[in-house]
Amino acid sequence: MSIFNIKHQSKKSSARTGILKTAHGTINTPFFMPIATYGAVKTQSSSDIKKLPSDILLSNTYHLYIRPGTDILEKAGGLHKFMNWNDIILTDSGGYQVYSLQGMRKITDDGVTFQSHLDGSKHHFTPEKVVDIQRSIGSDIMMMLDVCPPGDANKKEWVEALNLTTKWAMRAKKYYDQTKPLYGHHQIISPIVQGGTDLNLRKQSAMELIDINCDMYAIGGLAVGEPKEEMLKVVNYMDTILPKEKPRYLMGVGTPADLVENILNGVDMFDCVMPTRNARNSQLFTFNGKVNIKNSKYKDDFSPIDGNDFSLMSTQYSKAYLHHLFKTNEILGLRIATQHNLKFYMHLMNEIRKKINADCFEGWAKDFLCRYNNE
């Protein structure tokens, strides 16, 4: 049974809307996932995220393995119960986090040995162990362990990462098929396409992973320092290779403009720390561009944070008040800004789905990108 049904396919681009089915509900695509690294979106409760509204969030396998650990998660009955979240959870594999531990990890054919960033203790991840950890977490969508080189890596590093990622994906899929969920609900598993910005390597990786026959496919190894034009080129090419009938997940991307541009290239799923991280650094997203609320011009601006009515907090409080909260380091300022940015992203994705279904997305996207790219 397919987990994904396409509702509407644009005739002018690869943009499409669809429905992704999981054990904890269905979700309309394309969508953006708020980041809940440790099982919490910073400054927001589970009910806050549900009210955005969002039916999905992303947590991190590596960080949950380190803290609180799989024993606690299993005693709690999985992450859903642990954090009081009854909707969809996707967990990334932790591969990117482990690979980023420069000088603290060693990669071999078997897996990766690394030191905890907290206490220096040694651990070993294999493709099979990462499946086991995500079984303990109980996420609805599990990502396979991959090797994610930086944007300035050379071709040799891209080839090595690609080959290991394919080997590990084959092992992960075999092990996934041999094991069962711990909490009685089905878990989807996805491989991750690598290959840097080399289109031939990307094709090789995609074709090898397609042979494994999974329900969805992710595009990894982008938004890691390469020029934006290179990222778009890769995603555009992947649109011609990856199966049209299965959802595509572009990992770690990105800005509002990135979302619009990659939806034109047939991407269905996104995640990024940008709305929450930027909020904590006083930057707000609006349909008129970005706002740095700490700018002195806002200290006596008593207009709403955003005149749009899609965010309650954005209409309840003034720019002057939020400016004051940031200047005085009040935690409420982080909460308001974070909720505002997440609301903006959810509203943006909802607008995009409406425009695609109405066959007017491309013109709307052109106007939107003109505003954002010319700030």
Topology:
Blueprint: E1 4-9, E2 16-22, E3 25-29, E4 31-33, H1 46-50, E5 56-60, H2 61-66, H3 70-76, H4 79-82, E6 88-92, H5 95-99, E7 105-107, E8 112-115, E9 122-125, H6 127-137, E10 141-143, H7 155-178, E11 188-190, E12 192-193, H8 199-210, E13 217-219, H9 228-241, E14 248-250, H10 256-263, E15 269-271, H11 274-280, E16 283-286, E17 289-292, H12 312-316, H13 319-327, H14 331-357, H15 361-373
Parallel strand pairs: 4-15, 5-6, 6-10, 10-11, 12-13, 13-14, 14-15
Antiparallel strand pairs: 1-2, 2-3, 7-8, 8-9, 16-17
Helix pairs in contact: 6-7, 7-8, 8-9, 10-15, 11-14, 13-14, 14-15
Describe the structure.
42% of the residues lie in helices and 18% in strands. The protein is an alpha/beta fold. It has two domains: 30-271, TIM Barrel, CATH 3.20.20.105; 280-373, no CATH class. Strands 4-15-14-13-12 form a five-stranded parallel β-sheet. A four-stranded parallel β-sheet has the order 5-6-10-11. A hairpin with a 2-residue loop joins β16 and β17. α7 (155-178) runs parallel beside α8. It is globular, with a radius of gyration of 20 Å. The protein starts with a strand and ends with a helix.
| Strand elements, count | 17
Structurally, the number of domains stands at: 2
Beta content comes to: 15-25%
Main β-sheet: number of strands, strand sense, barrel status?
5 strands, parallel
Question: What's the end-to-end separation, in Å?
Answer: 45 Å
C-alpha Rg, in Å? 20 Å
Mean pLDDT: 94
Helix share bin: 40-55%
- Overall 3D geometry? globular
The largest sheet has its strands arranged as: 4-15-14-13-12
